[in-house]
Write a structure and sequence with these properties.
Number of strands: 10
Distance between the termini: 41 Å
Strand order of the largest sheet: 6-7-8-3-9-10
Helix content: 25-40%
Number of helices: 8
Strand content: 15-25%
Number of domains: 2
Largest sheet: 6 strands, mixed
Length: 282
């Protein structure tokens, strides 16, 4: 089913729900394969099913048909082989930053000594720039710092696949860029297979190796993929100065605009992405 070149494989995934008219098909026959260490961003118009696909890969939602495999094994429900970072970090307010990270570490590494588990959590928080905030509670942290805790919580588990569901979508532009740089730094130290949902074209180009373009729903599909040629490690000014940056950006925006004007859902008119309007990517 899954070959070594397909560390994460999503094949023919469809998701539908009962509806008064019979059935509402959200995603239809979505297939995508990632080799180990690749970073793929899924982009498309709001409501096209990007987060539905990510939730199925995370094991938080059952597919109506199709399946997902990681390292050759089909998934069944959620598991520690996948680290998930949501748009909101969902921290427990009565626990410190360290204890929020330890919640997952204690479960996944329960066979290790307590001191070692604490060190794992502390190191993860240090990597995201929170060495001085280990004992602070969520209410004492800014939105960006809380999201850093969420990222640390996912990385601390050393997952085979990292899943990011618009992780910086609720942050201001400056904090968003800071956390993008944090993510680039983390991935340069421990290359992970990453699948990210984003509504930001520039974010997709800066972070990913490939952009997966989703057609508009209903019955959204994979409309195509776009290779991102920028060398790693990534540096923002170098990416912006790359000869291909603006042509790739225009290609992504052009696909979105085509989908927004009623292109066929089978992707024949091009390739899609998720940015609700041109302002969102300006």
């Amino acid at each position: 089913m899954t070959t070594p070149s397909k560390h994460l494989e999503i094949w023919n995934v469809s998701k539908s729900y009962p509806a008064p008219q019979g059935e509402a098909v959200i995603v239809k026959d979505f297939s995508l394969s990632l080799p180990e260490g690749e970073f793929v961003a899924i982009i498309g118009h709001s409501g096209c099913g990007k987060s539905t696909v990510l939730s199925i890969v995370a094991g938080l939602l059952d597919a109506t048909s199709g399946g997902v495999a990681i390292a050759g094994r089909e998934i069944e429900g959620a598991g520690p082989d996948r680290g998930v970072v949501f748009q909101s970090p969902c921290l427990l307010p009565w626990l410190s930053a360290l204890d929020n990270v330890l919640l997952g570490v204690d479960q996944v590494f329960s066979n290790r000594p307590r001191a070692e588990r604490t060190t794992i959590a502390e190191q993860a928080l240090e990597l995201v720039g929170l060495k001085g905030a280990l004992r602070k509670f969520p209410a004492e942290l800014s939105a960006g710092m809380r999201q850093r805790v969420g990222i640390a919580r996912a990385f601390a588990l050393d997952p085979k696949v990292l899943l990011l569901d618009e992780p910086f979508g609720m942050l201001d532009s400056l904090t968003r860029m800071e956390l993008q740089d944090v993510l680039v730094s983390l991935l340069s130290g421990a290359r992970k297979t990453v699948l990210m949902v984003t509504h930001d074209v520039d974010e997709a180009l800066f972070l990913s190796d490939r952009v997966a373009l989703m057609t508009s729903g209903p019955a959204a599909r994979l409309g195509g993929t776009l290779q991102v040629p920028f060398p790693r490690p990534r540096e923002r000014t170098a990416v912006l100065a790359h000869a291909d940056y603006y042509s790739l950006r225009e290609e992504l925006i052009g696909f979105l605009e085509a989908q927004g004007h009623g292109s066929p859902a089978d992707g024949s008119a091009g390739e899609t992405a998720e940015v609700g309007d041109k302002e969102a990517v300006a």
